[in-house]
Amino acid sequence: MSNVDELIKAAKKKHAAELKALRKQAAREEQQLLVHVARLLEQYEPELFAHYRDQAALLIEQERTARAARAKAARARRKEQPEAVYDGGGEAQ
């Protein structure tokens, strides 16, 4: 590998790490913003906050139930698949 190729590879790796850090920071800031919005909503509109909190809890439970059902179905499909049987290989004569 030439020196230029190595420099390109190193630059791409550094750039990828920087992007990952920026995305992580943006996600952290978004989370903080959402927490502040929720606290303000709870403070100024407690009934509306309670309504949305209950709605969110219901959605989370529905997602959990759906995930469990998909996992159970996947396990059932795997059990239904016939196991590969080794027959000794070769052709029958």
Radius of gyration: 27 Å
How large a portion of the residues is in β-strands, by DSSP E? under 5%
- The tally of strands reads 0
Helix content: over 70%
Helix tally equals 2
Mean pLDDT: 91
Structure class: mainly alpha
Calculate the terminal CA-CA distance, rounded to whole Å: 53 Å
- Helix and strand succession? HH
In brief:
The protein is mainly α and 93 residues long.
Task: Provide a descriptive summary of the structure in words.
With 93 residues, the protein is mainly α. The chain has 2 helices and no strands. Helix 1 crosses helix 2.
Write the layout of secondary structure elements.
Elements: H1 3-44, H2 46-80
Helix pairs in contact: 1-2
What descriptive keywords fit this protein?
mainly alpha, 2 helices, flat
